[in-house]
Amino acid sequence: MNTKLKTVSQIIRKRRLFCVSPDDMARQACKVMTNRKVGALPVIDDNGTLVGVISERDIVRRCIGGKRRTVRTPIRDVMTPDPIVAKSDDTIVVAIAVMMQNNIRHLPVVENGVVTGMISIREVITELSTMAIKNFGMGGLATDTELRIAERVSI
Known about the structure:
7 helices, alpha+beta, oxidoreductase, Diverse_CBS-Domain, three-stranded antiparallel sheet, CBS_dom, 155 residues, CBS_dom_sf, CBS-domain, single chain, IMP dehydrogenase activity
């Protein structure tokens, strides 16, 4: 059995996009990431332009580690500016290669210049693992139940 590689847009297609403004305080990004259970958010300005990415790591290192208060620190001061992006039609192999080459865990997904979502390395690895089990799985010993579990397990 040979499964076609999914694109990043196929992985994130059912998910709602959450984002923040560069003028929001870091505390707002923390609240959104906590409530939505995500590790990073695209930072989009008033014109709808992607200007950065803010991650939990950015806040810990640049805000808290820099003895800045999250309630008084604008996201623009602690975000990663000019982020590397994935195109919506990139395969998951392209996405993981970009992430590994640039030592990043989250990629904004862009289609026709518009951010349509974010994909994480966890989602890509989960998809690749599921695909490997389906294609090469344990010498054909993987049961339907194991495959269903593998599809929903977060690494």
